[in-house]
Amino acid sequence: MTLRCPRCGAAATVLETDYDIRVRVFSYTVGCVGCERPTRIKLNELELQDSEAPVESLMQRELNKARNGYSPYREPA
Length: 77
Prior knowledge:
Layout: E1 13-20, E2 25-31, E3 39-44, H1 45-50, H2 55-67
Antiparallel strand pairs: 1-2, 2-3
């Protein structure tokens, strides 16, 4: 599965991966050549372990949320 950029729909790649051991969350920075601003997404480790879907599928779901304005880094209103 090819990840798609939430901004322009072009093929995207994982530019950076980080893991916060305190909360067991993976943070990914995903971007494409066409966009200068990468998107950051988070995936919970337990969700990754429990899911039968490939990691790329879960990452694309989060990228789609980002396209619709959702950001795990933004404070709730």
